[in-house]
Amino acid sequence: MQHFQSNTAKPAFHRRLKISCVLCAVAILALPGYCSVAKIATADDYSQGKAALRSGDYAKAKVCFESALSKNNNIEESQAGLLQTLRETGAYQEALKRAQEFLSARNNSAVLHLEQGRILEETGEYASAEKNLRQSLILALPGSAIRLGALRELGELLEETGKRNDALPLWNQILDEYRAGRVRGSQSLGDVAAAAWHRGDAQDAKDIFMDATDPKNGEVSLEALANFGYLFLEKYNATDALGVFRDCLKINKTYPRALLGMALAKKYENDFEVETYARAALAVNSNLAGALNVLAELRIEEEDYLSALVQIKAALIVNPANLESLSLKAFCLYMLGDRAGFSKIEKQVLAINPVGGTFYSIFADNLASRGKYPEAVDWSRKTIALDPELWAAYVTLGMNLTRIGDLEGGRKAIQQAFGGDPFNVWAFNSLDLFDQMDTFVQSRSEHFVFLMSKEDALALSSFAPELAEEVYANLTRRYGFKPSGPLQAEIFPDHAGFAVRTLGLYGLSGALGVCFGKVFAIDSPHARELGSFNWGSVLWHEFTHVITLQMTDHNIPRWYTEGLSVYEEHRAHPGWGDNLTITFLEAYKAGKLMKASELNTGFVRPVKPEQVMFVYYQAALLCEMIDEKYGFEKIRRSLLLFAENQPAEDVFRETLGLNAAQMDAEYAKYLDSRFKAIASHLYLQEPEKTSSVSSKEDLVRQVRTTPDNFRANLQLGQLLRKEGANSEAEGYLKKAQQLFPQYVEAGNPYELLGEIYLESKREDDALAQFTAWSRVDGDSAKPLLKAAKIYRSRKDWDSTAKMLNLSIFINPFDPDIQRMLGEAAMESGNWPLALAAYKTLAGLNTSDADAHYDLARALLATGNKQEAKREVLRSLEIAPTYRKAQQLLLKLSGGINEN
Length: 899
Ligand SMILES: [Zn+2]
Known about the structure:
Layout: H1 17-35, H2 37-42, H3 45-55, H4 58-70, H5 75-88, H6 92-105, H7 110-122, H8 126-139, H9 145-160, H10 164-179, H11 186-198, H12 202-212, H13 222-234, H14 238-251, H15 256-268, H16 273-284, H17 289-301, H18 305-318, H19 323-335, H20 339-352, H21 358-369, H22 373-386, H23 391-403, H24 407-420, H25 425-438, E1 441-444, E2 448-452, H26 454-479, E3 487-492, H27 495-502, E4 513-515, E5 519-523, H28 535-551, H29 558-572, H30 582-589, H31 599-604, H32 609-630, H33 632-643, H34 648-656, H35 660-680, H36 696-705, H37 710-722, H38 726-739, H39 749-759, H40 763-776, H41 782-793, H42 797-808, H43 815-827, H44 831-844, H45 849-861, H46 865-878, H47 883-898
Parallel strand pairs: 2-3, 3-5
Antiparallel strand pairs: 1-2, 4-5
């Protein structure tokens, strides 16, 4: 997910750069201390234990503290150090045993009561934990670090168990101490910052955390630093959270809370490293409930509820009262249809915390990521009813309202969130986006509402509705399904805005479009390098989602809805949608492609960026296999079965007669049938794969010994063409093309052969190259324009218009192309297309008298005399002596008078 960085005057919550630089310095300054073996060796056991604990050498810390205790050195501190070591590594039972043992001999120790309280919290014995923490408060010296720590810990426990009003005076006590100037040291300042945070003063919290984690004020507390990160996480500010957690890990690379924080921040970014970090945290503390919950959530995202329940069970064994684990368990049971089990846990959670909204917000979040926005909205409303100050819930509510088309309702909810918590990055970004969308123009076609920027509307308001209605007619007929509306198409002029719109959803930064069911959003051609992608095919893809999501009530595996979208792109126009590439063939050859049964995981959490690219194509191939071998009717039938909420395995067993293993086998066979021959022409094992500077002699030798070597043929052809040896080049280029017809990168055989043929006046051959090229590369306007040029010179207006019209889906903002399109469409009698082209041209070139004149003609031809008259007048305003326009005006005036 990407965050929209705004530079408007609204308060933003960005961590100042200063701090990360300072913290880097800390890590460097601290290094000599760690490295100096002599120093550690001479220090006493307690100090060694402390240093080892801080640096994450937990085994050594334990040995040192035990050793100090055996020598009766620094007894109370060593006991506390040992308990902290055991707690951080998740040895809770041992920690409890030792705490009781220590306290039986030292019952007046504030720090030991604090430690025991913290351990009991981890195991869910909240009432006993409260007792210990309160005892610690009684025993601790006024203003001491122990007292502040106990206040914070108790406050957090009270909030967790729904006693926010009881926590409030504790936060005030901490802040009073701070205001009185009695708080010193990183750890205690971190406690003050946490108090300000819980009081809702995020700005104060941030400022104090900055002080707390400033090394100029002494050694930085890991706990304060980690808590700072969690503050950023709460505000959905993954970037700054990651910065703080990384700083934390520079001091202690195995600090479990920082590793967990990294996992949570990566989750916002939908990064595959979520699992890596959660497992790293568990490697240090296998009982870390938060990390087990993260793994459960990953399995939930993959719709693997049974595996999620295994993780949750492990977390609940450690802490049977962990509210997050219980909520996740309830969600899994709910999704598995166990309503009784769900209600039982709901009661249990509300008994622990009667006012906590987390239980329901977990439902809202997870339902939204399954695409079930209306249900998510209901759960958000429940969350807010229970906890009206859970501002994050308003953001979720607002975002999901906008996804179901209620922009105003969504905006209102997010405004409420922002009012309550101005530091919530998602709220801030979304409001910024709404401001941007206020400037959008709205237009309608029969089945769609369009929202786009004024700049985009110049061209897209003419071409997008036409295409949208075409795909609507095409797919509603094929699938026998009419989606419910209003269907809303949003076209974003910058990718940041688009990313905010899609935030919270599968946030692939490479994504060009997103569909929420009735509402879909796409990047406009302006959002990327102009002419670099086909917005028409993206629109086609997103509308296919409208069909498959609505038809299945969003109960469709991710791979299937994506696969069908790309499959429909392929059907729409040859060349549209993901296509075969060399890297794909390389992955195929190396056996690195995913099995059919692995595709869903590939979508939910791709392991490598290129997997994202492969997975779409792979999913489309699976759909093509089903269509080719079993017939389209099976696809339609499978969607109806998904609508009944049947599991994928059952659906495909019923429709195709295949279980998962058989489907994997069929798919593997299908991939072989498509790619085995072509992949054998790549000769990847040969050295020329890496050295692109093979000499001519080398290439000649390679072509002679391996005539089916694609690369050698291509490179030799390119080289000869460069040398001007066109007739020699031709043979090698043709051979390369025949070996791998889908190759369309720069210097591809179509391009070079086309040029060679043009130069040698073989126009028909050139045209054949350009049209063939356009059929394998839907993202390049080049072949279309080259073909159009030839057709135009032959006055083949129909074909010219067809080529130019397709190029508009790649770049609609070139006035020259629009002019030629208008001309060709008009000459071939396609007046609606001529009208679209001239309308765009007149919008792009407002002072072009010809454009307004031609637009007037097209308007007249399509029966709109009034507007035609207006345009011809505009033309004459620009060029008062323009004869053709004068004549047209006369004709129009006469015509109007006649009526
Ligand atoms: Zn898609």
